[in-house]
Amino acid sequence: MENLTAHQGDVLTGPGSDPAANRKASVREVISWAMYDFACCAFATTVMAGFFPIFYGKYWHGAAEPSRSTFELGLFNSTAGLIIACLAPFLGAIADRGGNRKRFLLFFAWLGVAFTVGLFFVGEGNWAGAGFCFVMAVIGYLGANIFFDSMIVDISQGRSSDKVSALGFGIGYLGGGLLFTLDVLMTLKPHMFGLADKVTGVRASFLTVGVWWFLFSWPLALNVKERRRPGQGLPLSQAISAGLKQLAHTIREIRKLRQVVLFLVAYWLYIDGLNTIVVMATKLGVDIGLPEDGLIKALLMVQFIGFPAAIGFGILGHKIGTKTAIYIGLAAYIFITFWGWKMTTIQEFFGLAAILGLVQGGVQSLSRSFYSRLIPPDKSAEFFGFYNMLGKFATLLGPMLMGLVTLYTGSTRDGVLAIAVLFIAGAIVLSQVKEVRVAV
User: Fold this and answer.
1) Mean pLDDT rounded to a whole number for the chain
2) Least confident of 14-28, 170-184, 402-416
3) How far is 423 from 328, CA to CA, in rounded Å?
4) Rounded to the nearest 5°, which phi and psi values hold at 99?
5) Residue 55 domain-assigned (yes or no)
6) What number is the average pLDDT over the span 321-335?
């Protein structure tokens, strides 16, 4: 595990910084940080990608036309994404100056936990209550990820960040897959668990996600030490003032950060397509008449393929270059969108799911580590605020684009096809980015 920790020579800050900030992260800290992915990916898998899109149309909004419920699901994801996109840079800058990124992370995580559990109590036909709980839970999930991503600079630097980031995503797939397996069993064989029926099994799955997310957040809360650098550790009132000044300065100076800006534009384009496919894939399957049990099993397969594949992508990025490995993933996504456009059978959905599992975690983990090497480490939360802001604006645009195209044409297939151009454009912009560290 030594190669997963920050190299001794990978200095976290410049001369005159707090020596504690330059301290090599322990294996325990690296694993504890990665365990948060193990915790929160259960929400992304079971709720966002798995049961909520299906359950919303069938249980909470059963009377709606498929195209209407697809539009509303896109609207819920977009609303949460817009709120986080607007808050992310401000919260990031304040957390940087206060040196309390971990506190912000836990606040948003446990907000998400509370509203995920809340879905268990939403009754049949209450589409508004389900939508509200879902939006708040997604806000918690997305908000916590701003600070989780930014803490990668506390435990790794340089090329080691590829492997550390990939470890997080790999363990995340494992965690999401393990709980999803339990939740799928609860829905397919509810009587084994003392549950009345399949509907009760799905509702109980929301409860298990909340408990899982809460419990496995604790290793990070207890073991990961946030490195404070000069100018950090301010009281909250001063941190707000200093953070907003820092953000204003960065916005004024952003034109000098050409490599960061180019990467963020590229990331915004291709992560738009990735996020849309993740949260809307099961809706496509339902709308074209594929069996729900088969769709859930395919998503479960993604998790266990994604576990070794994400770690493998980290090694691949180290061997052939991070950008080249990302290009491979984007090419696979372009293929997925065209295949999804023509898909007619559950066997084809399983094939698409297998490809998705091979590349999804790799593209996400290498994007995170690549970006972490472009930014000043003492402003990581602020810069990851911008990173997540654009990612969430992608969540705003992508599902809404797919929903509108579906609503206009009456075909979810056409909505999927519209996403391909985002991967192509993202790859073109990424080709202009050079891997250099900038200073502000």
Assistant:
1) 78
2) 14-28
3) 11
4) 60, 35
5) yes
6) 90
pLDDT surpassing 80 at residue 85: no
The answer as to whether 192 is a domain residue is yes
Answer whether residue 14 is part of any domain. no
> Range of 195's domain?
23-224+232-430
Q: What is the CATH number of the domain that holds 293?
A: 1.20.1250.20
Q: What's the pLDDT score for residue 114?
A: 96
Residue 82 has pLDDT above 60, yes or no: yes
106 falls in which pLDDT band (50, 70, 90)? very high
CA distance 122 to 131: 10
For the chain, give the number of residues. 440
The total domain count for the chain is: 1
SS3 string, the chain, reads: CHHHCCCCCCCCCCCCCCHHHHCCCCHHHHHHHHHHHHHHHHHHHHHHHHHHHHHHHHHHCCCCCHHHHHHHHHHHHHHHHHHHHHHHHHHHHHHHHHCCHHHHHHHHHHHHHHHHHHHCCCCCCCHHHHHHHHHHHHHHHHHHHHHHHHCHHHHCCCCHHHHHHHHHHHHHHHHHHHHHHHHHHHHHCHHHHCCCCHHHHHHHHHHHHHHHHHHCCHHHHHHCCCCCCCCCCCCHHHHHHHHHHHHHHHHHHHHHCHHHHHHHHHHHHHHHHHHHHHHHHHHHHHHCCCCHHHHHHHHHHHHHHHHHHHHHHHHHHHHHCHHHHHHHHHHHHHHHHHHHHHCCCHHHHHHHHHHHHHHHHHHHHHHHHHHHCCCCHHHHHHHHHHHHHHHHHHHHHHHHHHHHHHHHHCCHHHHHHCCHHHHHHHHHHHCCCCCCCCCC
Residue pair 145/33 in contact (Cβ under 8 Å)? The answer is no
User: Phi-psi region for residue 126, left (φ > 0), alpha (ψ -120 to 50) or beta?
Assistant: beta
Amino acid at 275: N
With respect to residue 268, please indicate whether it lies within any of the assigned structural domains.
Answer: yes
Contact 81, 48 (CB under 8 A): no
Residue 211 has pLDDT above 90, yes or no: yes
pTM beyond 0.85: the answer is no
* Tens-digit pLDDT profile for residues 271-295: 888 877 776 666 666 666 777 777 7
Residue 349 in contact with residue 295, Cβ under 8 Å? yes
